Each structure stands twice: as structure tokens, then as C-alpha cells.
């Protein structure tokens, strides 16, 4: 899959560094020129890696990136170092930099942690959420009824993340909500790759919503646990226990 286009845009003043327009799925994202150049390069490359525009194992050439962003190699190298710290790229001695692999272990580790946290969140939410919170959950897009090809994977994952974080916020514990949000963010790259490989019904939230509407803590806990377990089984089947890249 080709990387999305990024068009550097210079201001009239030669002293103003360029910003860039990031284009993906017919949508345009502006990476502001107010950010330091290395930050803008980091943001653009991170988006490409997370959305699998840059495939696991793909080599990133500093010189080519410097030409693309119309800059020297110094801010490019700084951005790559930050991506390495985030675990998104691997800096190879005397070989350059490559996009880090996705492994089934990474995915299952995240799902294991989610399985310990989110069923408890759903159980608590069922007895504590307000009518307004329930109404907001019920009006979130019903992702399981959407076709990912029509909605777009990015939008689908955004709605999924919104749904799960909203339930976590019903606990009233900001630390739990932030942890769930962080786990979902960490799994975004995995989800992009997997959703491109999976043509069936990706997620199902109807059972969870039904249990919450009935104010049934145990049913909500079980529904969330089943939901995460289905994801675990589906991912295991797709990956077959193998690395995507070595």
C-alpha cells in the first residue's frame, strides 16, 4: 500500500518553516507549521505507520525523507529516534531504520490487559451510569452494523474507541478511562492491519448495550468479556501465531 501524500507548503516568508497537508482516504489533515520540524515529521510518519500505510519491515530512508519534507537529515533523524522510542520503528545498525513488526504476542498482551479491566468497567457502569450517559452510548454509531469498506477503517476504529472509553468513563475514575484509551491507541496499528484482512462482522456492541440498558451488572460484565474474547480468537486465527514481519 502506497504511503499517503504529504504536500509541504511554505509560507511567504523564507524564515517560516513549512507545514504539510496529510492526505488519506480522501481526507486532508493539516500538520501545523507552528510545530518544530522534527515534530511535524514525527506526526506524519507516526500516522502512516499506525494506519499501515507503512508496512511492517519497510525500510525508511533518511535521505528520501529529507527530500520529501524539504529539510536536512537532522530533524528526520530526530523524528526517527522518537518513533523508535515509541516502538514504531527499529533502528538497525549499518542498515538504516525499518518499521517495527507486529506480533501476535503484542496483540494478545493488550487484549489480556483489556480483559482484566473492561469487563469490570462494564459491570460498574451498568449500575452507575446516568440516563444521559446511557443515551450517549446508545446514540454512538452501531459499529457492528456498518460495512468497514463504506465507513472507512479509520472512522470505524474511532467509533470503537469512543464506545469503549465512554464505558470506562462511566466508572468516574479518570485513571481507568485513560488506561483504556491508551490500550486502544496502542492497538490501532494492529487493528488497521487486521481489519484489512478480515471481511466479516468485525465488532459487536449490541449485547453490551442491551445489558447496560437493562442495568444488569453481571450481564454487562459477561457481554464485555465475550466481546474481547471474540477479538482474541479472531486475531489468533488471522495471525496463526506467526509474526507479520521479521
List keywords for this structure.
single chain, 246 residues, mainly alpha, Arc Repressor Mutant, subunit A, Four Helix Bundle (Hemerythrin (Met), subunit A), 2 domains, three-stranded antiparallel sheet, 6 strands, 58% helix
Describe this structure in words.
By secondary structure, the protein is mostly helical. The protein folds into two domains: 6-99, Arc Repressor Mutant, subunit A, CATH 1.10.10; 104-239, Up-down Bundle (Four Helix Bundle (Hemerythrin (Met), subunit A)), CATH 1.20.120. The protein has eleven helices and six strands. It has helices at residues 37-50, 62-68, 73-85, 104-128, 131-138, 148-151, 153-169, 174-186, 188-197, 206-213, 217-239, and strands spanning 6-9, 19-24, 27-31, 59-60, 89-92, 96-99. It has a three-stranded antiparallel β-sheet. It has a three-stranded antiparallel β-sheet with strand order 4-6-5. Strand 5 and strand 6 form a beta hairpin. The longest helix has 25 residues, at 104-128. The radius of gyration is 20 Å and the shape is elongated. The two termini are 19 Å apart. The relative contact order is 0.12. The model is unreliable at 4-18, 25-30 and 241-246 (pLDDT under 50).
Amino acid at each position: 500500500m502506497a504511503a499517503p501524500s504529504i504536500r509541504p507548503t511554505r509560507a511567504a516568508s523564507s524564515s517560516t518553516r513549512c507545514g504539510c497537508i496529510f492526505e488519506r482516504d480522501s481526507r486532508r489533515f493539516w500538520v501545523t507549521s507552528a510545530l518544530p520540524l522534527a515534530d511535524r515529521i514525527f506526526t506524519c510518519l507516526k500516522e502512516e505507520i499506525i494506519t499501515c500505510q507503512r508496512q511492517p519491515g519497510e525500510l525508511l530512508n533518511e535521505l528520501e525523507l529529507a527530500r520529501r519534507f524539504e529539510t536536512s537529515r537532522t530533524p528526520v533523524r530526530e523524528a526517527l529516534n522518537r518513533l523508535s522510542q515509541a516502538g514504531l520503528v527499529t533502528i538497525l545498525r549499518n542498515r538504516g531504520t525499518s518499521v517495527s513488526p507486529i506480533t501476535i504476542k503484542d496483540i494478545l498482551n493488550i487484549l489480556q490487559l483489556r480483559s482484566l479491566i473492561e469487563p469490570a468497567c462494564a459491570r460498574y457502569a451498568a449500575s452507575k451510569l446516568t440516563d444521559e450517559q446511557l443515551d450517549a452510548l446508545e446514540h454512538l454509531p452501531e459499529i457492528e452494523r456498518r460495512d468497514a469498506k463504506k465507513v472507512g477503517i479509520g472512522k470505524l476504529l474511532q467509533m470503537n474507541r469512543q464506545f469503549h472509553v465512554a464505558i470506562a468513563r462511566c466508572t468516574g475514575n479518570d485513571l481507568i478511562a485513560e488506561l483504556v484509551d491508551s490500550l486502544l491507541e496502542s492497538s490501532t496499528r494492529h487493528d488497521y492491519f487486521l481489519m484489512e484482512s478480515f471481511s466479516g462482522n468485525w465488532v459487536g456492541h449490541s449485547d453490551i448495550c442491551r445489558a447496560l440498558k437493562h442495568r444488569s451488572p453481571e450481564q454487562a460484565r459477561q457481554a464485555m468479556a465475550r466481546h474481547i474474547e471474540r477479538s482474541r480468537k479472531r486475531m489468533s486465527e488471522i495471525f496463526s501465531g506467526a509474526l507479520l514481519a521479521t
